[in-house]
Each structure stands twice: as C-alpha cells, then as structure tokens.
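Example 3.2
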Amino acid sequence: MSHSNAVSHSLERVRRALASVVPPPRDKLAGNNKAAAVLVPIFERDGILNVVYIRRSDDVASHRGQVAFPGGRVDPVDQTVLDTALREAHEEVGIEPRTVEVLGALPTATTYTSGIIVSPFAGLIPHSTPFRPQESEVAEIFVVPLPALSDLRYRGEYEWARDDGKVARYPAILYGGQTIWGLTYRITVDLLAIIDGRAP
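Structure, written as tokens:
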C-alpha cells in the first residue's frame, strides 16, 4: 500500500470509528466552569500523518506549562461544544475553522488534576496552515509524526507531585523534549487505537 493510500485508509478508519461517538449537548456544559472542548489537529505531509500539540504558558490559570491540544472552556457564544473547540483552536494557534475537516468526536474525558470535563474532536487541517500562538496562553506549538506517537521507544513515565506531597506516576510519551501525559496522553492513545483498528 502506498503512503497516500495508507493515509487515506487511516483517516477513513477514524471517520467510521468516530461516527458513533456523540459529544455532550452544549446545554449540559454551557455555564459549567468544568466544561471544555479541544481540537486534535491532524495534517498529512509527505505521506505521513502528524498531530499538532501546544505547550501551555506558565501564566495561565490551570495546567501551567503542560502539553495539551488547543482548546478551552465552553463559552456562551458557542452553539455546540464543537464550536468551542474550533473557536479556541483559532484563538490559540490560528487555525481557521473553515479549513478544518472535522473527522468526529473522540470520547469525553476528565482531567486528573482539575476535574475538567473535556470533549475532544479530531480535525484534518491543511499541511500549509500558518500556526500563530496566542502568547498569553501558548508557550509553544509543536508537531509529532504519528509513527513517533506509536513508537514504544518514546514511551515512559511522568512524575507529578500532588498537593499532598505524594508523587504519582503516569504513562507518558516523551518526544522532542516534550512530555505528553494525563488527558492529552489518553486522547492521543484513543486516536492511535482507532487508527490501528482497535476500539479506544
């Protein structure tokens, strides 16, 4: 199978798998300060799928300095949680909503550290997208090739010091000096499972 055919097959598998995932209705999340949505931006270059991540600023209110997907809290202006993900991705990294082919919703999950309910959406974007970080919230935008996310050589652990002083260890992807752990790791692993033909 050629690279382009393999990419098309992977994307179609994601579309089919996510077609049955129903995101929560906005009216259950609007006004809930624990509700958020993120976009998992994917693009193809030279026959390889790549995933876009951000490293959050050290000045934001929560999850300072952590790797995440572009996204944020549900706002009254958002008609749906998908609108939240697209609006936040535009604000944080400059992805134009009209250029996103939404592949579907991934399973909703809750953050370990703050209990925020997050609705993730996978979206295909043009490889030529000019990323623009929102400096007040985004310290860095970086890209990881899908094969690296699947490569066990980049798997490890992240040690997080809890408020009670105890250290908790979580599985992580360690790539390019970045540590992908927590909710972002779980969303990534769900996506990889779908692409590999396994249920998330």
